[in-house]
Amino acid sequence: MAAVGYVRVSTADQDPALQLDTLAAVGCAKVFEDRASGARTDRPGLRAALDYVREGDVLVTWKLDRLGRNLPHLIETVAALERRGVGFRSLTEAIDTTTPGGRLVFHLFAALGQFERDLIRERTRAGLAAAAARGRTGGRRPAVTEEKLRRARALIAKGLSVRDAAVRLRVGKTALYEALRGPRKAASDQPRTE
Question: For 62, which of 55, 97, 165, 183 is 20 to 30 Å away at the CA?
Answer without folding.
Answer: 55
